[in-house]
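Fold this sequence, please.
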Amino acid sequence: MHQPYYESILLIERLHRHFLEVLKTELDRLGIQDINNVQSLILYNIGEDEMTVGELTARGYYLGSNVSYNVKKMVENGYLGQERSPHDRRSVRVRLSDKGLELRENIRLMFERQITALDAAGFNSEELARCNEIMHKLERFWSASLEYNAFSSTLPSRPAP
């Protein structure tokens, strides 16, 4: 069980990095240089919603990134609009600008091309659904271990001095 578990951890990280490289390649193909791959993933996940940076952070994990910094850069480069919440002046809400919506559509089209390529490569929706089911199960395991300190009951106890 040790080796498959450790291999799963490494594979999840490697797959995420590969996906970010796919996004980078798409940005290069489109001639877009004022946003990076992590920022474009954040942008895609905002979608049609309007949310705070805190809500965005809670929605997804962005490897090696500071969401507040990336949001600031996307606002500076015209991909996001922001405004202070009328109810809480400390809170800033962000949404995609027209430029951001255009990039999101380009990323959606990339996903469509990838879905067609996956099908041509012999993948099917049942395989991907099973893969997602396993990853969700692992996510629940890790979440539960954080919330309930599940590992403490499985660790060997230390002998008294």
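The two ends are 32 Å apart (CA to CA). Strands lie at 51-52, 80-84, 92-96.
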